Amino acid sequence: MYKNVILSGATILMMFLSCKQSSHEKPPESASATQEIPFLWENANLYFLLTDRFNNADQTNDINFDRTKETAPMRGFQGGDIKGITEKIKDGYFSDLGINAIWFTPVVEQIHGGTDEGTGFTYGFHGYWTKDWTALDPNFGTMEDLAELVSVAHQNNIRILMDAVINHTGPVTAQDKVWPKDWVRTSPKCEFNSYETAVPCALVENLPDILTESNENVELPKELTDKWKDEGRYEKEMAELDDFFERTGYPRAPRFYIIKWLSDFVRDYGIDGFRADTVRHIEEEVWSEFKQECDLAFNDWKQQNSELVLDDNDFYMVGEVYGYEIISSGKSFDFGDVKVNYYDHGFDSMINFEFKKSAESDYESLFSTYSKVLNNETSGFQVLNYLTSHDDGSPFDKERNKPYETASKLLLSSGSAQIYYGDESARGLIIDGTQGDATLRSFMNWEEIKTNPETQAILSHWQKLGVFRRNHPSIGAGKHLVISKSPYVFQRTYSKNNFNDAVVIGLELDTGIKSISVGTLFEDGTKLRDAYSDTLTTVKNGMVDLDTPFTTVLLENQMP
Fold first, then answer.
1. CB atoms within 10 A of CB 148
2. CATH number of the structural domain 39-171+270-441
3. Any catalytic annotation for residue 289?
């Protein structure tokens, strides 16, 4: 749980303010310093990063398994690791940005070799080519590193999401054999024009597809058990599997092994959620089974670690159904011949692939549409909005010409917000010589953050909005109401479980002296703080006067 925090202003441009209320009922007051601010997943500031590309804190683990072959541009390991994430949490980087959840790419052991599938030679630096779900890849770190990461994150009121890959193993290479035929299929290749051509099929060539529909008992691959024996943990792993299958009564089918292995990270380390990969390519009932085991594991961890529990939120799961434009389509994804509601199968939220299209509209159209859809009491749902990502080749503002607008639209919209690493520092998304999604995955631009004034100004803007959003659940989870179209001023209000929050925001305002209406949200005489400029003001005749060099205003009740 967060207490209200005052963050001093930095520099940049934007704005926020006022509010108007059509109802004659007294609106909820803004969160006060005496109220505990609840963490709500629907208002989360979620930072998504590629583990290998974010921060290299341990150079001793940069090369493993003789991964020394030259790769195509941006397609090899570059040294980022789990310790690098922990280091930045300790430095306060995430807290200064208002982050309260971190999702990082998979850190389980990857195939040892690499492939050349048309984009140049590639290693599994991205984490989606699993070799062993029970081990971490030494390039990323150790189980001890993971335990420290979760512990340090929780100490800083930051939740941790891991990436769950159940759909496929890693590709087959000279170093990495194909899994047995009772575990995987290698054909047909998915065609994506119906349920049957999108689920029981191989996503791409040479990416063996787990037989997630199978209920047949299967033995573990000999290559895996021999590996465990070499590492001295065969007996332990087998005993745990025996206990799992005895407790659950599940058949020893491929998916249940993987569900056991992934839910162990929840039970052992207390991770707060999973981002589920390639959701549409697995039978929806599998996700229900997975969520059930994760819920049980999370409750087990809480009971064993009551002093470390952050809040009473349940285990969280957000899914990736690639291309799903959920705001327009609604809660059921259409395969063409079958519709599936993944919210009924374990998911709390879905990644919103439509948001980058929505962000092309003006602020009011964006904000009002999303508030109306997501706050519908009968058909509402949660979404995770994003504007750039690791595998979306047509992101919003790929040239990074609109970093301020990007921040304002992402962080001030209803729904949870996914900041892709480097969004906040305008990290380049166009890298000469790269092919495909490699151009989206350069190393984090720490040097520019240290030395470039414009980068620092952009970061400051993201920090101010991020902290304001973190401190005010009304931003992502509340109701939107426009106060004034010109200048553009709106309010957000949230009231639930004896917690009330209200803010007024103004965007694209004039610099210098400005008078802004706060509608009926704040009574005359109320002392307000513009969190963007760290300036105090008082409501008079439903207005506030400010003299700031910024075009953004973020009004909240003044902290004592």
1. 18
2. 3.20.20.80
3. no
Q: Return the SS3 of 556.
A: strand
234 Cβ contact list (under 8 Å, min separation 6): 225, 228
Sign of CA dihedral 158, 499, 301, 282: negative
Q: Is the pTM of this model over 0.90?
A: yes
Domain assignments of the chain as residue spans, ordered by start? 1-38+474-560, 39-171+270-441
Beta carbons within 10 angstroms of residue 215's beta carbon: 12
**Please, what is the angle between helix 143-155 and helix 254-269, to 10°?**
50
Catalytic residue among 148, 163, 320, 423: 320
Q: CA nearest 51: which of 113, 4, 109? A: 109
Q: How far is residue 430's CA from residue 427's CA, in Å, rounded to a whole number? A: 9
Catalytic residue among 277, 289, 354, 424: 277
> Which three-class secondary structure state does DSSP give residue 477?
helix
pLDDT in tens, 97-118: 999 999 999 999 999 999 997 7
Active site (annotated) includes residue 312:
no
Bridge partners, residue 122, by sequence? 115
Assign a CATH topology to domain 1-38+474-560: Immunoglobulin-like (2.60.40)
What does the pLDDT look like over 192-248, one tens digit per residue?
A: 999 999 999 999 999 999 999 999 999 999 999 999 999 999 999 999 999 999 999
> What residues contact residue 39 under an 8 Å CB cut-off, 6+ apart?
1, 2, 100, 157, 159, 310, 311, 313
